[in-house]
Amino acid sequence: MSAETDGQGRLYIPKDVREKYGEKYHIVTYEDRIELVPVADDPLAAVREAAGELRDASVDDIRADIEAEAKAAARENGDDR
Question: Which residue segments constitute the domains of the chain, with CATH numbers given?
Answer without folding.
Answer: 1-39 (2.10.260), 43-76 (no CATH)
